[in-house]
Specification:
globular; 207 residues
């Protein structure tokens, strides 16, 4: 992944679309969390997570101007990297985990939605805890004005909070968490392969 991110950060055009892609995915996460809220019994920590994910999306979007002014105004495919897998990444993970939890543990209704929120968010936070430091290393290597150090700190806190919530939710949380991590790993590999293929095309390298 480091080679991919280094290649992206070294190109202003690719870097702008990378930031926009991460922003889109963070925004998708914020919306997914909001969709899992109970209309009445919503907990403070869920509000905190959705707000922070939305702020990450905004922060990443704002960083684009440090690379190219007026670049990537929307989340249209032409302003993203590997748009197909990037768009469907989170939804595919959610569907996989929902099916697993329903078929294995018999959850339904709000309990199913809440379990999916916990497990999807946990798996994504584990990934973020690996991906953002790699990105920050590349930013430092190329002396970029962009930084994601604040996101790294918050994502680390998110991960700790998700583990606490999972422990509170079920005594089987480790079994569920292992499935979530493996499901996410498969999707991440697909996304990474798609990124590599996308970066090898003339379109992606047209700076």
């Amino acid at each position: 992944m480091k080679q991919i991110v280094d290649k992206i950060v070294s190109s202003p055009s690719l870097h702008a679309r990378w930031l926009n892609t991460l922003s889109m995915m963070e925004n998708a996460g914020a919306k997914k969390i909001k969709n899992c809220e109970d209309p009445v019994f919503v907990r403070e920590i869920i509000l905190k997570h959705s707000a922070e994910e939305a702020r990450h999306a905004y922060y990443l979007k704002k960083q684009i101007s440090k690379i190219e002014e007026n670049a990537c105004p929307t989340y249209e495919n032409r302003y993203l990297l590997a748009p197909g897998t990037s768009y469907h990444y989170l939804n595919a993970l959610d569907i996989s985990i929902c099916k697993y939890v329903k078929n294995t543990f018999g959850y339904s209704g709000y309990k199913l939605k809440y379990a999916a929120y916990l497990l999807v968010t946990y798996a994504i936070e584990v990934r973020a805890d690996e991906l953002y430091p790699v990105y920050q290393d590349s930013l430092s290597l190329f002396s970029s004005n962009v930084t994601v150090k604040s996101i790294i700190a918050e994502e680390k806190n998110h991960l700790e909070e998700m583990i606490l919530q999972l422990k509170e939710f079920s005594e089987d949380w480790e079994i569920m968490a292992r499935y979530a991590i493996e499901a996410e790993r498969i999707l991440f590999e697909e996304w990474k392969n798609d990124l590599e293929q996308y970066l090898s095309t003339d379109q992606a390298n047209d700076n």
